[in-house]
Design brief:
By secondary structure, the chain is mostly beta strands. It is built from one helix and seven strands. It has one domain.
Length: 102
């Protein structure tokens, strides 16, 4: 898995997902935030990440460390967006079986 960003639209609001390796391939940091508009002269994107509403730190299963989740108590995230975020996490973190099954 490599560093990724995605911007999702939900009922007129935009949400930003940021995933990054924390320095070792066995630990990943994920953030879900309400997106904020990029400056007009920003070359690549219409939106940038805002303050993280949900943060997840996940480790490779071989590390035998449980993932941790932190919620910003000041922000609300629509349930549908949270479900999409958990699906994103599942897809990003699951390891394919050796025979190619998932």
């Amino acid at each position: 898995m490599r560093d990724r960003t995605e911007c999702w639209e939900f009922r007129g609001d935009y949400f930003y997902v940021l995933s990054t390796c924390t320095g070792t391939p066995s630990a990943w940091h994920f953030e879900l935030s309400e997106a904020r508009p990029a400056p007009v002269d920003w070359p690549a994107s219409e939106h940038l990440p805002g303050i993280a509403a949900v943060t997840v730190l996940a480790f490779d299963p071989d590390e035998e460390k449980p993932p941790s989740v932190c919620f910003d108590g000041e922000q609300e995230v629509p349930f549908e967006v949270l479900c999409r975020f958990t699906t994103y996490l599942w897809d990003a973190l699951r390891k394919p079986e050796p025979d190619g099954a998932t």
